[in-house]
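Supplementary notes (optional reading)

For those who missed the lab, this is the record we used. Protein: UbiA family prenyltransferase. Length: 289 residues.
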Amino acid sequence: MLTFFRNVGRGILFSNLFIAACAFSLVWQTYLLLQLPVQLWLAWLAFLATFLIYNLDGLLPYKFNQNIVISERKLWLVHHRSLLLESISLAGIISFYLFIRHGQTDHVWFIAHLVIISLLYSLRIIPQKNGTFMPLRNVPLVKVFLIAYVWSCVTVILPLQTVNLPIFTLETGVLLLRRFSFLFALTLLFDIRDFEKDRITSTLTFPGLFGVRLTKVFSLFLLLIFAVLTYFTEKGNVLLSLELSAVIAALVVWFSHEKRSDYYFLILADGMMLLQFFLVYLAVSSSIS
């Protein structure tokens, strides 16, 4: 029985279902924070698109030829490659249907630029002096900015667009900055996790340039920005829930280092997004009741 649950847990984590659930939860959270009716189709679209993009990234052929230690996750991907390819094909079809069914023409160009960034993130298309090509993620220090930017746009701007609210307002800007700071802080942890791999593949990241300790300090500073902005823009139980999520995330940052198990980052670092959603959901529910 224990083996069964362990295999199920690995499948949820390594297949990117867990991170896709995080995208789902952050979209829902935005509607809760702004007291708007939840558009579940967009949350599901974010879930499916995240599942598709992350698995495409993980299944790229060149990643299996890198001169790095094959991780448990990479081995799992190799063994379940066919199933994942079928799953992401289905996810792509359903995503397309959801957008055609519910999306609006004004969203096309905004979504298109996010899709382009997500694809360029992993594909080797940027020419180098030696005649080879590299993905956008290998451009020095760019990776974390791109991830935080795309996630912030998907989970803040798109929900506003679906209910035809203006996106160029002070309230939207602060919410976007809050979300960006929180996500940037978490994303830096994966640079810490990948410190050795990025060093082998000559990818310059924050830990590679400034060291792991300073990267953690910067991550904590970003969480402080999130906490301060939240303090001045929220109140009551919602404020407490968001501040609590920042404190717990800070503890995850504090105890992180490059030797930590992959599970630490996949469950705790990514899990901070789900935790924040559940705390906000409980806070909003208690306010209504």
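If you only remember one thing from this example: Strands lie at 126-127, 133-134.
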